[in-house]
What we know:
Distance between the termini: 113 Å
Structural class: mainly alpha
Radius of gyration: 29 Å
Helix content: over 70%
Number of helices: 9
Order of helices and strands: HHHHHEEHEEHHH
Amino acid sequence: MADAVQMLYGALILLSGAACVCGNVLFLLLLLLNTALRSDTLSLALSAVVSDLALGLATVPFAAYHSLVGPPRPPGQGTVCQGSGFLFLLLQTSSLHVLAWTTVDRFSEIWLALSHRRVWTAWRRRAVLLAVWAFSVASAALPLLGFGAYEYSERRFLCCLSFTPENGKMVATWAALGVALPILAVCSLNGYVVYVARKQARRGTFTCNELHCYNVPANNYLRSSVVMVTTSVGLLVCWLPYVSVCLYETFSGQQSPAVTAALSTWLVLTSAALNPWITCLTQTYRAAVRPSIRRFIQMCLCSETTLESRPQISAPHLDSANRISMTTTATRPPSSPKTPT
């Protein structure tokens, strides 16, 4: 790979890592400062944030360092490379599957509107998260047990699955169950919800409470549809080139061009940065962004002001109190004895 392309790849990786960290920290800040956003799907949202944030803090610096600085020798298949490859596959799989189950939960709110809370109870969400992470850990541990292998890719500048014909079964299993299945579920369910939303926008919908009924504007459905379409398109754009390149290298036995491999890897790492920003585009989170940032800044300013003014306020206050008490004592006229009547 040319030095200019390698430097460009490193710069793009750093940009994606910064966007990933900032987006997920912003999402956590919204959840911390707004109790109204802590819905029943909080556990799923936190799990997705943890996966994406860990991917941005663990894998992205590894790839950026190897592309910009370059180690004195490639990591090969040592312990560091095996651990990095394990984390890369683990966080990828968990992020995709948590996103898929979050979409299933949102879809059930429409399909099972009356019985949604009975179906999606708190312990069932915990069971889903436990199953997702168990599947992700098992999938990432298979190459460590001999079913596949992790190795350093000089064209991707990170440790990942070995895309060779010898590891075809592992690559095919990962591509089908770890990537294709959750992406297909997300795109299909989002497509159906967008279809229903367009019908509702054309027909008009009325929402009623105990007092009155009011019309729901069509823009609410259209904005939600834009977010869902963006999520589906983002997944396809980020993952389809990477999976295609991996399957081509595995079953053809030939290496793809270095630029193609690097670009597809950058797109996959960028998907972890897009997820929190797309979520913040929804109407609920978008309305809470500015107030949360303003509130956070006010909290920081108030804490600094309190720390700076605390030693300056206490001393004058005590001095003033002492002066008042001393003056009052000194100038108080003597009480005259009461004369009995």
